[in-house]
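Structure in, sequence out. Go:
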């Protein structure tokens, strides 16, 4: 399979324009059309739907695109391993992340990333359903739990610090709990299916079955319900840092840490290794977020986060 044909196909998939793709690769539109025809003939299937106004991928073209990008990235990595060629991240980087974290933090990361690498595009999928780098067509998955799997590589992005918090209005009406056991007297907002809250109390673990009038399956909605004064909830600092810093939420039970510890990881398939685009994004994301995540610095500097 001709690498030039693959490179052109990927470029057409990005630009949706054969002439523009051809110019970017330094070939004529006629040559580009012949390359695409040869690729389709070799595969025995139609990859593109072409009209006089636009070009779009067929179902087969969409399925083939990810693998074509993977081949091109592998070629770049192979060249780099022997010191040949300047390896510049290119193609499309497919990223999956939980909806709330992605909306709040990854958009700004990606904005800076594509400014640094304008020849690269990003396909960001935000969903709270499980996504796997081994089972789905993605390069990087952001997740908090990493199962033992020799096929999956995981790089820690940040600590995922959890805090218990409530609004000033709620605490003024119902009082401030001073021990985890007192939570049974409060209205707790829980994440759907996760009613058990575990605290470290001296040398022992103290398990609480939280209950209340509201259970939600969305991080930001839990936070917003707490801001509205509906109850006490557990939130990640990346979700509530602004609300803690401005006083809309108050951390409670700060003397008792929640267990187990949680972390945010970037996972990738070891079968693809760290291709230039994956390596570049991981490095950029780590630098952008910081050794101490910027959200934790903001709320710590405000004096409203106790750890």
């Amino acid at each position: 399979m001709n690498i030039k044909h693959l490179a052109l196909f990927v470029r057409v998939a990005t630009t949706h324009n054969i002439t523009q793709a051809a110019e970017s690769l330094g070939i004529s539109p006629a040559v580009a059309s012949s390359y695409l025809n040869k690729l389709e003939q070799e595969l025995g299937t139609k990859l593109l739907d072409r009209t006089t106004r636009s070009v779009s991928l067929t179902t087969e073209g969409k399925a083939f695109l990810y693998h074509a990008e993977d081949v091109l990235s592998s070629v770049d990595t192979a060249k780099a391993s022997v010191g040949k060629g300047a390896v510049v991240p290119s193609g499309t980087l497919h990223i999956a992340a939980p909806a709330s974290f992605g909306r709040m933090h990854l958009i700004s990361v990606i904005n800076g990333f594509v400014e640094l690498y304008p020849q690269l595009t990003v396909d960001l999928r935000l969903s709270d359903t499980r996504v796997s780098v081994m089972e789905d067509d993605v390069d990087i998955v952001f997740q908090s739990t990493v199962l033992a799997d020799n096929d999956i590589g995981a790089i820690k992005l940040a600590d995922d610090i959890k805090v218990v918090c409530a609004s000033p209005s709620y605490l003024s009406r119902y009082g401030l709990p001073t021990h985890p056991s007192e939570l049974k007297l409060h209205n707790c907002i829980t994440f759907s299916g996760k009613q058990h809250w575990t605290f470290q109390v001296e040398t022992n673990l103290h398990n609480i079955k939280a209950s209340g009038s509201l259970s939600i399956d969305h991080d930001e909605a839990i936070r917003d319900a707490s801001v509205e004064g509906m109850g006490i909830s557990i939130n990640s600092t990346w979700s509530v840092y602004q609300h803690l810093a401005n006083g809309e939420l108050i951390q409670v039970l700060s003397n008792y840490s929640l267990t187990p510890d949680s972390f945010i990881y970037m996972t990738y398939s070891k079968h693809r290794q760290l291709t230039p685009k994956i390596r570049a994004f991981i490095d950029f994301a780590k630098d952008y977020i910081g050794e101490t995540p910027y959200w934790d610095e903001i709320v710590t500097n405000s004096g409203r986060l106790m750890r």
